[in-house]
Design goal:
The chain has about 400 residues and is α/β, with parallel strands linked by helices. Among the domains are: about 80 residues; about 160 residues, Trna Endonuclease, Chain: A, domain 1 (3-Layer(aba) Sandwich), CATH 3.40.1350; about 25 residues. It contains 10 helices and 7 strands. It has a 5-stranded mixed sheet. Strands 1-2 form a two-stranded antiparallel sheet. Helix 1 runs antiparallel to helix 2, helix 3 packs across helix 8 and helix 4 packs antiparallel against helix 5. It is elongated, with a radius of gyration of 65 Å. The termini are far apart.
Length: about 400
C-alpha cells in the first residue's frame, strides 16, 4: 500500500497498474523522440520546438495524471465506502448466522437433553421390568419347588381354598381344619342348615399323574399315564367319601377341590367315567372357578335359611312398625286440627284488627261541628269522673 497524503494507493489495483504503464509509455516515447532528433541532426530550433511540444504533451499528461489521480481518489473513496458497507452487511449476516446457529445449537441441546431424559426413563422402566421378570422367574422356581413336594403342594391347595372361601362366605359360616366326630380333620367345613347340613371341602392335587399324562409321548406312555391319573383321582374320591360324609353330622355329600383349572378341565374332557364315579359316591369335583360359584349358591341358601329363622322377629318388628305408623298418623291428624284452629284464630284476629283500625281512622277524622243532634245523642260517649253518676238526659254540645 502507498499512502499519498490522505489517499492510499494499492499497487495491485488495475487502475494504478494502468496509470503506471501509461507513464512508462510516455517516458519511452520521450526517449525515442530525443534519439530521432539526434540522428536527424536537426538544428536547435527544431529541437526546441519538439521539446516544447513534448513539454506540452507532458503537461497534458500531467493534467491527465492529475485528473486520473482525482478519479482514482473518488474510486478509492467509493471502493472504501463499498467495502465498509460490505463489511457491515457481512457483520450483520455473520451475527444473524451466529444467532441462528446459537438458537439451533440451543434447540438441539434441549432436544438432546429431553431425548436423553426419555431414554433414561425408558431404561429405568426396562430395568424395573427386568427386575420383575427376574423376581417372577424366582417365584416360578419357588412354585415349582412347592408343587414338587406333596406336603407343600397340599398346603398350597389349602391356602387357595382358604382365600376363595373367605371371599365368598360370611365370617361365621365356615371352619378351617374342623375335626369331625370320627377324628378326621377336614380342610374346610361349611356350616349349612339342615337340609343339607354342614358340608366338607377337601383339597386334593394329583399333580404327578397329570404331569405324567402331559409328558407322555408314545401310546404306551399315554395309556399308563391315563391309568395312573384314574387311580389317583379314584383314591382321592374314595378317601373323601369315607372320611367326610357322616350320616346325621354332615351333608349327604362332599366337595373335592382341585386348585388347578387345567387338571379339572383334563378330568372333565378325557376322564368322564371318573367324574361320574365321584357323583355316584356323592363327591363333587370343583375347580377354583366352579368352587366360587358353588360357594355363592351356598351363601344364598344360608341367607335364605337365616331369613326364615328371623321371620318371627321380622313379623314382630313389622307389627311394632305398623303401630308406630298408626300413632304417627294420629299425631299428624291432631297437629292438623291444631293448625286449623290456629288458622281460624288468626283469621278472627285479622277481622278484629281490621275493625279496630277502621274505628281508629274514624276517630282520627272526627268533626264535632258536623254531628247532627241525633248523632250527638246516639254516638257520643260522655266522659265522667269516677264519683259522678252517669247522666240521664242527652248531653249538651260543647261550645
Amino acid at each position: 500500500m502507498i499512502r499519498i497524503g490522505a489517499v492510499t494507493i494499492d499497487p495491485s489495483d488495475p487502475v494504478v497498474l494502468a496509470l503506471g504503464a501509461l507513464l512508462v509509455l510516455l517516458l519511452l516515447l520521450l526517449v525515442v523522440v530525443l534519439r530521432l532528433s539526434a540522428r536527424a541532426g536537426r538544428p536547435d530550433g527544431d529541437m526546441t520546438q519538439q521539446l516544447g511540444r513534448l513539454g506540452d504533451v507532458v503537461r497534458g499528461l500531467a493534467d491527465g495524471q492529475q485528473q486520473l489521480f482525482g478519479g482514482l481518489s473518488t474510486v478509492s473513496k467509493a471502493q472504501a465506502e463499498a467495502q465498509s458497507r460490505m463489511i457491515q452487511v457481512m457483520e450483520a449476516r455473520l451475527a444473524e448466522v451466529q444467532r441462528n446457529m446459537t438458537d439451533s445449537l440451543h434447540g438441539s441441546a434441549v432436544r438432546t437433553t429431553r431425548s436423553l431424559a426419555e431414554l433414561q426413563e425408558r431404561l429405568a422402566t426396562i430395568d424395573k421390568a427386568q427386575h420383575n421378570i427376574e423376581k417372577l422367574s424366582g417365584d416360578v422356581l419357588s412354585l415349582q419347588d412347592i408343587l414338587s413336594n406333596k406336603q407343600t403342594r397340599g398346603a398350597f391347595g389349602e391356602i387357595q381354598l382358604n382365600d376363595i372361601v373367605t371371599k365368598a362366605m360370611p365370617a361365621n359360616s365356615y371352619q378351617f381344619q374342623a375335626t369331625l366326630s370320627n377324628g378326621k380333620r377336614a380342610d374346610c367345613l361349611i356350616d349349612l342348615p339342615n337340609p343339607p347340613g354342614p358340608i366338607v371341602i377337601d383339597s386334593k392335587f394329583p399333580l404327578e399323574a397329570y404331569e405324567a399324562l402331559r409328558g407322555a409321548e408314545t401310546k404306551a406312555q399315554k395309556i399308563e399315564a391315563a391309568r395312573l391319573m384314574k387311580a389317583a383321582v379314584r383314591l382321592h374320591i374314595k378317601a373323601i367319601s369315607e372320611k367326610y360324609i357322616i350320616e346325621g353330622e354332615t351333608a349327604d355329600g362332599a366337595l373335592m377341590f382341585l386348585p388347578s383349572e387345567a387338571v379339572y378341565a383334563e378330568l372333565h374332557a378325557n376322564f368322564g367315567d371318573v367324574v361320574r364315579e365321584g357323583f355316584a359316591q356323592r363327591v363333587w369335583i370343583v375347580s377354583p372357578t366352579t368352587c366360587m360359584a358353588t360357594l355363592n349358591t351356598m351363601r344364598a341358601v344360608l341367607k335364605d335359611a337365616r331369613m326364615r329363622e328371623q321371620a318371627g322377629a321380622i313379623r314382630r318388628e313389622l307389627g311394632l312398625l305398623y303401630k308406630d305408623v298408626e300413632r304417627l298418623g294420629d299425631r299428624v291428624d291432631s297437629l292438623d286440627r291444631h293448625f286449623g284452629q290456629a288458622a281460624k284464630d288468626i283469621s278472627d284476629i285479622k277481622i278484629s284488627a281490621g275493625k279496630a283500625g277502621n274505628r281508629a281512622k274514624k276517630l282520627d277524622n272526627f268533626d264535632f261541628e258536623e254531628l247532627s243532634e241525633s248523632a250527638r245523642n246516639d254516638d257520643v260517649v260522655r266522659l265522667a269522673s269516677a264519683a259522678a253518676a252517669p247522666p240521664k238526659g242527652p248531653s249538651k254540645p260543647a261550645s
